[in-house]
What we know:
Oligomer: single chain
Number of helices: 5
Amino acid sequence: xxxxxxxxxxxxxxxxxxxxxxxxxxxxxxxxxxxxxxxxxxxxxxxxxxxxxxxxxxxxxxxxxxxxxxxxxxxxxxxxxxxxxxxxxxxxxxxxxxxxxxxxxxxxxxxxxxxxxxxxxxxxxxxxxxxxxxxxxxxxxxxxxxxxx
Length: 149
């Protein structure tokens, strides 16, 4: 059995579990815990299976370390935090869309490809915006630091 087939089966089982959870009382504490577990399972899968998650993680860690070293302001931290969050959110949504398209459409399909391209373009826009925020926040601080040497 191929890895892709196993992943498809796992996705179908998780979708089944989600349906079963939704049949429970949505106000119950157990239901709330289960939904958090699904979210953490998704994050665990994302970070262990997607190489792009590690690339974004390295960039986010670099931005955090640079922010600490350059002692950026609270408002700058807010911009960096939002930028990191938006990149991860769009990458996770892109991955979910790609998996869903692959699950629904087994054959090569122009429309399926266009859907995947659009989802990937959202990540690209988020990453470029995050880069712009990084430049706006870090370049003046780096220039200030280097001019003092």
